[in-house]
Amino acid sequence: MKVGIPRALLYHHYGDCWFEFLESIGVEPVLSGETTGKIITNGAVKADNETCLPVKVFSGHMLSLKDSVDAVLVPRVVSQRQGTCSCPKFLGLPDLARALDCELPMVVAPRMDIADRWSLWAREWYVAARAFGAGRARSAAAVLKLLRALEQAERAEQTEQVGEENGLLEPDMSIGVAGHLYNMHDGRVSLGMLDKLRAMGATPVTVDEVDARVARKQAETLSRRVFWGFESHLAGAALHWSRARAVSGILFVTSFACGPGSMVGALLEDQLSREGSVPLMTITLDEHAAEAGMVTRLEAFVDMLRHASRAAARAGQAPSRESRNPMDERLLSDMRVTQTCEVKSH
């Protein structure tokens, strides 16, 4: 039996755990291909117009599995940790998948509710394993293996991964990229943003490189509590980068029609503008994004950071304010406030 896994959304967080579960019960996991323009177009045509870009990408991957698998695994992810809940699109994703096309294979949707300390949701994975034809003992062993894999993934998120002291980087042209992993790790959706930053001489830092405990503590200082788990981590990571001056600038990357992203972006902009943060630019992705426009905006942002860094270095060497270059003064002033630029590529 072949069970498909769409290469989209939470596959980029839990894909390895899902693969291991399916292999443990003796079925063949089939991963959809890399995202292409055709996949995005097909998903945009079939998905509801009100959905965000990542859901349209997911829809395209679902359709690409139509004739190659016997069933598709689409877990209903309710929460990622204590005190949080998932975005509504994750809660309703299995229902959306079933409504895409009446000829799609069976959608199997066991619940994942990591905030449930008793792991009562694991029963649904046992039922799914039995439905795939696994015996009782094998199904129970696969569920235990899944729980252990998720625990290991959670511990890995709480390990300092960047630098040697509290996840700090040298601020020499490092740029924090506060965007969902399913956007940033998909080269077609992000238009290769991370590689483009590296080609420009910058070092991109993503949110998965920030200790989850550090991000959680920072997010608690926002003027409003963020209940969505992933968005809370994005905001906390950006606040950490800014307050620790761990990066030269921050890119907040969101998707068009993403409700939680819009709200968190506004909260983050307000908080950082009052604190005098490192420069911040917002980039909004959609299915019409053009690579040329993206490159132009990234180049402008990197050039601004580079000039501001040079201005700061010259100002540190200058004996008096009168001897400084007027352009340096303006750049230094710009660095003390949040620079927000809403970017939507068409």
UniProtKB/TrEMBL annotation:
DUF2229 domain: which residues? 2-209
Where is region (Disordered) located?
312-346
Query: Domain of life of the organism in this record?
Result: Bacteria
Which spans does this entry mark as compositional bias, Basic and acidic residues? 321-333
> What's one Pfam family the UniProt record gives for this protein?
DUF2229
Coiled coil start-end? none
Q: Where is the composition biased (Polar residues)?
A: 336-346
What the entry lists under InterPro entries is as follows: CoA_activase_DUF2229 (IPR018709), Dehydratase_Activator_Redct (IPR051805)
Q: What is this protein called?
A: DUF2229 domain-containing protein
Which species is this UniProt entry from?
A: Candidatus Anoxymicrobium japonicum
